[in-house]
Specification:
Elements (H helix, E strand, L loop, with lengths): L1 H25 L4 H22 L3 H10 L1 H22 L5 H8 L1 H8 L5 E5 L4 E5 L4 H22 L4 H29 L5 H11 L1 H14 L5 H28 L4 H9 L4 H13 L6 H37 L1
Antiparallel strand pairs: 1-2
Helix pairs in contact: 1-5, 1-11, 1-12, 1-13, 2-4, 2-9, 2-10, 2-11, 4-8, 4-9, 5-13, 6-7, 6-8, 7-14, 9-11, 12-14
InterPro entries: EmrE (IPR032713)
Protein name: Multidrug resistance efflux transporter family protein
Keywords: Membrane, Transmembrane, Transmembrane helix
């Protein structure tokens, strides 16, 4: 239950990203600065936290062991996750991006064969490839149907090209975030806590944010004071608080793919938090009945997916016990 609660709390803080990015876009801020400033601002805060906890040296020691893996999977998990989301904010409202972002639940399920699970027996440790949970994937189609509804409703008001500019980057991010997160969990092997892992991935992805910043200076100029301040809010709320909460939750269940999927499913609540935030703070129009029906399907799919994942975890334990006894 605790991982689920942490996941929901993380979803609430993650929603700040969609709300503030929409605000920055409405005020003329460029997506490049929205993306790069978040991670540049995160570094000093995370450094201070990790240093106070006395965990900086162990982090650098682990990063030195797997330099290439840290750079690659941090680029995927942070770079290919957040830069596309910021780009999409220039073409779609925050609640719509948050709704489409829930495709990450399906993406995480589809990527199961890319990972292995270890089962301990009395004599040795068995390693086998994860399989796609078909039942969970079938339930996830409810989420997919909801996303399709809100996107079709959005299509009535925009051109296909603008729809794709807001849709495709989010789908890329939906695959990149769970892939990078899970691969880094494999690399860390439980040796680092959530603060260390977020700091390490932020440092490892730093080359991307520096390149984007240089490009931003050359093409759009320096960010406004308002965008810098708003990016700082996103860095603290989404980049530090939400990410650490989510990583803590996934670390707790990293050995169980069904339970990990359930934690990732809690992120569906981001769409509700983002919608409420934009409605109250930005005065956006409330979604149409069609879009609202789509949002309802997304949330319903999340709930069903969580129950299915819990049942899958129980069966997983029973099969493992039978295998060991045999």
């Amino acid at each position: 239950m605790k991982p689920i609660v942490l996941g929901l709390a993380g979803a609430m803080f993650f929603a700040v990203t969609f709300i503030v990015n929409s605000l920055m876009e409405a005020q003329g801020g460029h997506w490049i600065w929205s993306a790069s400033l978040r991670y540049l601002f995160m570094i000093p805060f995370l450094l201070l936290i990790v240093i106070i906890r006395g965990n900086l040296y162990p982090l650098f020691k682990e990063m030195k062991k797997h330099k290439i893996k840290w750079i690659v999977w941090s680029f995927v998990g942070f770079g290919l996750f957040y830069a596309p989301l910021c780009f999409a904010a220039a073409h779609s409202p925050g609640w719509l991006i948050a709704g489409t972002w829930q495709f990450t639940i399906i993406a995480g399920t589809l990527m199961a064969p890319l990972f292995f699970v270890r089962v301990s027996t009395a004599d040795h440790i068995l390693t086998h490839r994860q399989r796609i949970p078909i039942k969970g994937l079938l339930f996830s189609t409810i989420i997919l149907a909801g996303i399709a509804l809100i996107q079709l409703d959005h299509l009535a008001n925009v051109s296909i090209s603008r729809l794709l500019l807001g849709l495709v980057p989010v789908l890329i991010a939906a695959f990149a975030y769970p892939l990078g997160n899970r691969k880094m969990m494999e690399v860390c092997e439980g040796k680092l806590d959530a603060y260390q892992r977020v700091l390490g991935m932020t440092i490892a992805s730093l080359p991307l944010w520096l390149v984007l910043s240089i490009y931003g200076v050359l093409t759009t100029g320096l960010p406004s004071n308002s965008q810098a301040y708003q990016s700082l809010i996103v860095a603290i709320s989404s980049g530090i608080i939400a990410t650490v909460l989510f990583f803590m939750a996934t670390d707790m269940v990293r050995t169980s793919m069904p339970k990990l999927a359930a934690v990732e499913a809690t992120q569906s609540m981001e769409v509700i938090f983002a919608l409420i935030g934009e409605f109250l703070l930005l005065g956006i129009a409330f979604p149409s009945p069609t879009a609202f029906a789509g949002l309802t399907l997304v949330i319903l799919g999340m709930v069903i997916h969580s129950f299915a994942s819990s049942h899958g975890q129980k069966l997983e334990k029973e099969k493992s016990a039978m295998h060991i006894n045999a």
